[in-house]
Amino acid sequence: NYFQFTEGIYLLFFFVSGVVACGIGFFVWSINRLLTKLRHPPPFHGMSLLIALAQPCIFGICLGSGPLMIAVLVIWVWFASGNTTGVICMPTPIDVAPNLLPINAKLCLQDLTDWSGEADPETVLRPGRQQLTIFFLGVYATFLYARLVLPKYSDEDRLTDVQRLALKNKKEDKKAAAIAAASMPDEEDELPPDDTFQPHIWSRSTFIFLSAFVQFCLVVQMEFSYANLFQNNIYYWILGFKVMYFFVEVFIMSVICVDKIEYAPMSAAVALVSNMTTMGASSFSQFLLSFFAGLFLTCLERLFVAPFISETMNLWPRWKLMLKRRFRGNKRMTRDEKAKEELEWRRVNEEIELLSEGIEPCLDSLADYAIDSTGLVLAPVTYACLQLFYDENQIASLYAIQTNQIFYYIIFAFLIIPFTFVCDTFLHNANELLHGWKIFDYLSYQRYRFSVREYRWMLRNPVMDESISEEFQTVDLLCFSSQFYFLMGLLAFAMVLICMSIEAILRLNYNPLGDMAFLILFVAVFLVGEIMVRVYERMADIKVKRLNWRGLWATKQIEGTVDDDVAAKLAVGEGKQADLEQERLELQALNSERFRHRFLERNRPWILQHLVELLTPRSLDQPGPDGRPTVEYVRDIYAELMSMGEGLRKPGDREDISSDEEDELEALRRHWSRAPLSGAPLAIARMWLARARKRRAFSKMVRGIVDQNKRTACEICGRTPEKNNIKLTCHLARRGEPDLTAIDRLIAEFEELYGVNELEPQLWKAYFRAHAEYCTRCSMCEDSMAQERLLQASKAPGPSRITRPQDISSDEEDDMVDFDPVVVTRTSPEGRMMSKWLVAARKKLGGAFPRPDARKQMEKYAQKLRELKMKKARGAVQPTAEELAKDPIMKELQGETANVTAATKALALRWIRLARDVMESKFKYRSETFREDVDTLLGMMPEEDDWYFGAALRLEGRDLLVKGAALEDDRRTLEAEAAVKVHKIERDLEGHLVDRQAELERERKLFNTKLAQQNDKILLDIEVRRGELEKLKELRKKEFMAEERKAREEMGAAPTEMIQSHRNQLLAIDQQMLDEQHNTEEYRREEDAQAKIMFDRAELIKLAEMERRKALASENIARIRQEVTQKVKAAEAEWQSGTAKWLAVARRKVQVKNKEDEEARAGKRKRKGGK
């Protein structure tokens, strides 16, 4: 129990522990296999999944941590004590002068002491410098990781490996020309690039800050693990640290760094340090119990806890909205607020659906597994570092572990790796059974994707899968390959080295900043690190053909082709017999001309899209198969691919025989010019292409929604797939009928509401769900309707078919001869002949006459004649171009551009709005007048008078009255809705104007206050300066009086020149006082004027913004009212037209009836009077 047994006993214990771990994994998988709810459980993936998990992990982590471990060994040898095994450092230094030390002592920096000279060179400085060097090594590895994950790639770096190689060769060919061009002076100087926008530096700084924070947490955890409190409650503290680091990852790491690849190695370092703290157990049995406790926690976390937490975080937005609705109370909401809340609810639900059904849960599980596996593989290396620096960092000694005991920890960590990978294989299979994730399929796809990649370093690829959450895009791009684990191992091991070096520095009481060798070690580590990076890059390009090694992470596009790869496999005999047979058939198909032709036909769009990537610039400059440049040859092949299809003439076809499928448009289309488009045609083509791509993308987004709205039975015949063996199809509809243009109409309305540049998928889906109409048709109904349409189109006009407008030619439109109106009586020969023809035509056509739409057709024809007559009349009145050219006014106006000011534009817009309001009021007044007239005339046409007026006329008037009332109700409803919107706009405008006005007042008061303060300050400066000059004047007076007194004593009287000079100097001081006061006041006035000008200009800008806001509000109000008018005006205009006709007929009949009644009453009175 206290490492007193022999090595064989402990090796047996370790082996049994690994087998028990595998048994636990098998037990977990068996339980889930027996209790799975999947209808078709996935098969167990054993060795293939184990290889997919272990191979890239072990290889990548060894690549990442291997160079660091080599550097650690070099540092250990460099600073090893000469008293033990050191070969560079001397034994205990002798008391000699530093310049007399041997060269090996200087290489070990033994000639440098600390600044205070108090630190012991053997027990403090040497091990302290050793650990400081390791600390710098970890810091350099952290910075290197930041450069790799957060790079600053140029456009050339973003090219594929093939393109970069071709570009490099082309640059070498044109190097002399480039040097000559660079030596020539530039015609115009270009602006230097802006160095302020450096987003990669900001991201790296954030990453370094986060790594420092995590490093601090690790050091605190290590210090705490030495305490007896931790050792006595080790299981509780393991669980507590897991919970704490989970909150750190969710609320700190994932918030600061959006991409998981940035903080996943930090989590691996946390897991590694947490596993290392289990060494604080008091005995070997407790150490094993800690291992199995961690294993059980891992099983629970991967199978239940992590998926539950991920699902909870995905559902939190929905719960947040539900809580918001719950605690809102009975607060009433407007229609816009309800629509906005409903749209937000739909968006959140769709996002939850996408996150739950996408690959994100599987990616999250694999990323957590990668963190644990990184800590697993790095554990032996970490324990080896503890063995190397046992006396320096004292971590093992604080855990009461002897030097010979660490060997057992290293062996255990090494032997448990394969068993843990086997256990992980069972856990991943259990996850497939429990959650339905396709983990094996995803890993197999990622291995294939990594093998056929175009970029040697995957992070150079600028194309990421945007359908995946942003957190996992880079992780998915790295394909869980050896490159991914290389990055994980690099940063995780670097952070562990930093943590252990900090622990050692603290135990040694070593002050790094007080050491003279601090900067030397820092520069040496970073300089040697940069040199070794270049060396390792060169080593990665080394090829070993005997071992079929093409270099580290070399892509197939650089060395060899698919044919070479398959042929090599066939020659060596690699793989199973079935795989070899499949590869042989693939190679045979690739060499077949028929297969290649079919491949070109089926993959034509992809080839045309990626043609620029398949051909390098250097290959385009070389001669082609026909001797011409490859560029021209490729252009011809491109044209042939574009014209590939039906109706294409092949070499040798006769020109005088046309194809049955060929038409003139197809022939013209094939002979279009191949020259690139430019100008307006290019803009039109790009616009069409953008709209077509948008229509295709939007249609794909809602295809599932359309399928979800498919009914269980046909809406026409009621057939179902179960009973009638038919296929149901859901179509977009309009008013219950399938409409092929419905998707275009919905996209146009969506763009009108949200803007043309709005491409948010969730917003489009929500809008589509709210406004789309659907109809379900069966295959039989669709076939019958299609046949009916074809039959109707093939029928000629006759009794069984109503004449349609397209059956009548338009010969009389432009070349119609004008005739005077002719009146033909029915009794004349011409009238009888026309009547006879009319009766015969009606008899042949069949049916009832007159037709229901005869009056409408007649009015349409009459209107056409009137428009033609007005067109000719306008042409006669309108002056010709020659008359306009002779007009002197037009001559003056030619070449001039009207200068429209803002006031003129505002007046014009106001006049237009007032004119529209007047026209609208007249239109409404006419409708009201018509309704009153119809109501009045209907009152004069009682039902008992139907013998005179006719029931049809009365019923038509009543229908018109009902329709007019309905239109009025619709108008009032729309006007009420518009009034609400207008009121909201006016209220918002009023609030905005009040806030702006208050802001202007505050700024004006602040400006006046500031101006007054500046003036007071300037006046105070003037007074201070005036006081200084007064003091100077008094001082000079005293000096002058002393000089004059001395002159009088010596000479008897002061000279006149001296007195005059003194007087002039005093006057100069007075003048200086006046000049400075005047200049200062002038400066103050200029500053005040300039400040007022700037303030007035800013105020005018804000006032102009307020006016613009007013104008915008007016435009919105006018637009809302115009929309209301457009919605009701068409139907109301049609109603007014029909009502006007009815009123004309009804008034005439009522007038005639009233006149006849009056005559009857007059005759009756006359007869009574006669009696």
Short description:
The protein has 1171 residues and is mainly α. It is 72% helix and 1% strand.
> How many whole angstroms does the radius of gyration measure?
47 Å
Number of strands: 3
Order of strands, widest sheet: 2-1-3
Q: Sheet with the most strands?
A: 3 strands, antiparallel
Catalogue the unreliable spans.
92-98, 180-191, 558-576, 810-817
Number of helices: 42
Proportion of residues in extended strands: under 5%
What portion of residues is helical? over 70%
**Class per helix and strand makeup:** mainly alpha
Cα(first) to Cα(last) distance is 149 Å
User: Whole-number average pLDDT?
Assistant: 78
Name the overall outline. Answer: extended
Write a structural description:
- By secondary structure, the protein is an all-alpha fold.
- The protein contains 42 helices and three strands.
- Strands 2-1-3 form a three-stranded antiparallel sheet.
- A hairpin with a 2-residue loop joins strand 1 and strand 2.
- Helix 2 crosses helix 4 and helix 11 packs antiparallel against helix 13.
- The protein is extended.
- The chain starts with 6 loop residues before the first helix and ends with a helix.
- Residues 92-98, 180-191, 558-576 and 810-817 have low confidence and may be disordered.
Could you name the key traits of this structure?
42 helices, mainly alpha, 1% strand, 1171 residues, three-stranded antiparallel beta sheet
Helix and strand layout, with pairings?
Layout (H helix, E strand, L loop, with lengths): L6 H29 L11 H32 L24 H5 L13 H29 L11 H13 L1 H9 L15 H27 L2 H5 L1 H23 L3 H18 L6 H43 L8 H23 L2 H29 L1 H4 L1 H4 L4 H33 L3 H13 L21 H6 L3 H27 L9 H23 L21 H11 L4 H14 L2 H10 L1 H6 L1 H4 L2 H5 L8 H13 L21 H7 L9 H22 L1 H6 L12 H4 L3 E7 L2 E2 L3 H13 L6 H11 L2 E5 H16 L34 H17 L8 H24 L3 H6 L1 H6 L8 H38 L6 H4 L1 H101 L4 H115 L1
Helix pairs in contact: 1-11, 1-16, 2-4, 2-13, 2-16, 2-19, 4-7, 4-19, 4-20, 7-10, 7-19, 9-10, 9-11, 10-13, 10-19, 11-12, 11-13, 12-33, 13-16, 13-19, 21-22, 39-41, 39-42, 41-42
